[in-house]
Design goal:
The complex is a heterodimer of chains A (about 100) and B (about 500). Chain A starts with a strand and ends in a 10-residue tail after the last strand. Chain A contains no helices and eleven strands. With about 100 residues, chain A is mainly beta. A five-stranded antiparallel sheet of chain A has the order 2-3-8-7-11, with no helix packed on it. A four-stranded antiparallel sheet of chain A has the order 6-5-9-10, with no helix packed on it. In chain A, strands 1-4 form a two-stranded antiparallel ribbon. Among the domains of chain B are: about 110 residues, Luciferase, domain 3 (Roll); about 100 residues, ANL, C-terminal domain (GMP Synthetase, Chain A, domain 3), CATH 3.30.300. Chain B is built from 16 helices and 26 strands. In chain B, the strands form seven sheets. A nine-stranded mixed sheet of chain B has the order 2-1-10-9-11-12-13-14-15, with helices on both faces. Chain B is globular. Classes of the chains: A mainly beta (about 100), B alpha/beta (about 500). Chains A and B meet through strand 8 of A and helix 1, helix 7, helix 8, strand 12 and strand 13 of B.
């Protein structure tokens, strides 16, 4: 568990995935990737941390990941093998909006 | 949160794609990142308060923008059309600063103390080896990313501040990462010190669309790049489109635009006849009208290609007139039209335009935030919404003519004058009136080979608008005063018309 606030960047303990928090309600949450809690840039993975094969659907760079209520939104800034989850529930890819290019 | 993240993601995901082209030189996203990282090394160690650019559109603009972000310094691109004395004054406000400059621009000024100059030509060659990421990417979302000096048509230029959180909210809210196809290329003709020039670099980088930089806008060069570089997307300010349409008319030759899919325009009022001619000349191309301000991190409203087509094809006058609208707010932006007492107005009622959203910065250096307690920003533009939420702008609040208590916007009168066959250009401003306090004055440029009298134009306006809109004074000019971004300098016209009978 850690305080999750917009702008926070986290990395996976078990794969190359990195995310940035776009939107989050105040308070703490457990953000996991590949079955292990995600880490701040300065933290290192606990010994023996490994990708959980049941949590290995992968993350894609540039996609936004949201919980079912869309209270949390993460931007994947580096893709990896692990699946993203919040408080034990998988995060889904948010639909892209189609805006015409204005610049 | 840092705008350099946009380039990091692009370089990681499609580093070998071309990021930017100018005059037959190109950089891939990986090379652009290497060059920006190398430049950032010169900026580090806390010696500078700003990183400034004094150059035309080119490879230096994206390098300087991203180098500033890697180094955690505000990026301040300067208007190279200013006089030496004006530039010296701005540089004194930026010192201590690093200045990436083209030598011929530096020759015009005496560089103030505290400014360390780097030659533009040295920075654009990517280093042999990538210096690697900075030890820690500055991550404060509230740090200033961009500092743009306003055009200063009314006094000392103000320094508008855009923080990383504002700019990132705009890009992440409007652009899908890597969504551009590999053949897409965006032609950038607005200068690097204009907010549209900055957002072009950031949007294109994040979408993976190649930037093609035109150093100095000129219709023939712009049209040539359309086919030479297989341009798919372009952004123009209204005066550029006016000049492109005039050029095409003189050439008696249709434009060649083999790959062009979309033209976006904004940064000023687009005359209806010009957009109508452009829609016909660039048949099949998607047109988007983008309304935004420096203070709102660029676009807040869009009139979409579908809206343009619907307006052209519709028999319904309410749909047809939308060609003169700036469209609807972005999904991430709220917009209200309010009266002078701050009450939200109903459809069709003109008032002041307010916006709210995560991209709205609303701040100048030294001013503190100008957002109200609920986060709303007063754009200082006047306008009204139609029943379907389309915004119609009337002009800057300062430009409204108050005639006997009635608010008159110059825009509607200018549009009517511009539809007169003999009128090439027109601007309407307030003139002092003993009877009304202010009255309507018009400065008109007559088309070559055509003729018109003041009485004739007054009758013409009277035939289209209420009598209070008829210009009391009409003066004729060879040309109207514009700033270099194509905005009419109404302050100058007001001064001039004051003294004329």
């Amino acid at each position: 568990m850690r305080a999750i606030k917009p702008g926070l960047r986290l990395k996976s303990a078990v794969c190359a995935t990195e995310v940035m928090v776009i939107r989050a309600p105040p308070g703490e949450a457990l953000l996991a990737c590949g079955g292990s809690e995600m880490l701040a840039a300065s933290e290192s993975a606990p010994a023996g941390a490994a990708l959980d094969p049941a949590q290995a659907q992968g993350s894609l760079i540039g996609k936004r990941y949201v919980d079912a209520e869309e209270r949390y939104e993460l931007l994947c800034t580096k893709g990896g093998e692990g699946s993203l989850a919040l408080n034990g529930a998988p995060l889904g890819v948010k639909q892209a909006k189609a805006l015409p290019s204005s610049d | 949160m840092n705008v350099a993240m946009l380039l990091d993601m692009a370089a990681d995901a499609f580093g070998q794609r071309i990021a930017v082209t100018c005059e037959h030189r190109s950089l891939t996203y990986a090379q652009l990142r290497s060059a920006a990282r190398a430049a950032a090394l010169q900026l580090g160690a806390g010696r500078f308060a700003h990183a400034a650019l004094l150059d035309t559109n080119g490879l230096t603009a994206p390098i300087a923008l991203f180098a500033s972000a890697y180094a955690g310094l505000p990026y301040a691109p300067l208007n190279y059309r200013l006089t030496g004395a004006e530039l010296e004054e701005l540089l004194r406000r930026l010192a201590p600063a690093w200045l990436l400059a083209r030598p011929e621009f530096l020759a015009r000024l005496k560089v103030p103390a505290g400014i360390e100059c780097a030659e533009a030509g040295r920075v654009i060659a990517p280093p042999a080896a990538d210096p690697g990421p900075p030890p820690e990417l500055p991550s404060d979302p509230g740090a200033v990313a961009i500092q743009l000096f306003t055009s200063g048509t009314s006094g000392t230029p103000k320094a508008a501040l855009l923080r990383h959180e504002h700019v990132m909210s705009y890009i992440l809210g409007t652009v899908e990462f890597g969504a551009a196809a590999e053949d897409e290329a965006a032609l950038v003709a607005v200068p690097p010190y204009h907010i549209a020039g900055i957002s072009a670099v950031l949007s294109s980088t994040y979408s993976g669309r190649r930037l093609v930089m035109l150093p100095s806008f000129e219709p023939a060069a712009w049209l040539q790049l359309l086919h030479e570089q297989a341009i798919t997307h372009a952004f123009v300010v209204p005066t550029m489109l006016v000049r492109i349409m005039e050029y095409l008319a003189q050439q008696h030759a249709p434009a060649r635009f083999p790959a062009l899919r979309a033209i976006a325009y904004g940064g000023g009022r687009m005359p209806r006849p010009v957009i109508e001619r452009a829609l016909a000349s660039f048949a099949g191309v998607d047109f988007t009208n983008a309304y935004g301000l420096t203070e709102t991190s660029a676009t807040v409203c869009l009139l979409s290609p579908a809206d343009h087509r619907a307006a052209v094809q519709s028999e319904d006058p309410h749909v047809r007139r939308r060609l003169g609208s700036v469209g609807k707010p972005l999904p991430t932006v709220e917009l209200e039209v309010r009266d002078a007492a701050g009450r939200a107005l109903a459809a069709e009622e003109p008032g002041l335009v307010f916006v709210r959203g995560a991209q709205v910065a609303g701040e100048y250096r030294g001013s503190g935030s100008l957002l109200d307690a609920q986060g709303w920003f007063a754009t200082q533009d006047r306008g009204w919404l139609d029943a379907h939420g389309y915004l119609f702008l009337e002009g800057r609040a300062d430009d409204v003519i108050v005639r006997g208590g009635e608010n008159i916007s110059p825009g509607e009168i200018e549009e009517v004058l511009l539809r007169h066959p003999a009128v090439a250009d027109a601007a309407v401003v307030a003139v002092p009136s003993e009877q009304w306090g202010e009255a309507v004055g018009a400065a008109v440029v007559v088309r070559a080979g055509a003729a018109a009298t003041a009485e004739e134009l007054q009758r013409w306006v009277h035939g289209h608008l209420r009598s209070s809109r008829v210009p009391e004074r009409v003066v004729f000019r060879r040309e109207l005063p514009y700033n270099e971004m194509g905005k009419v300098l109404r302050r100058i016209l007001r001064e001039q018309l004051k003294g004329e009978p």
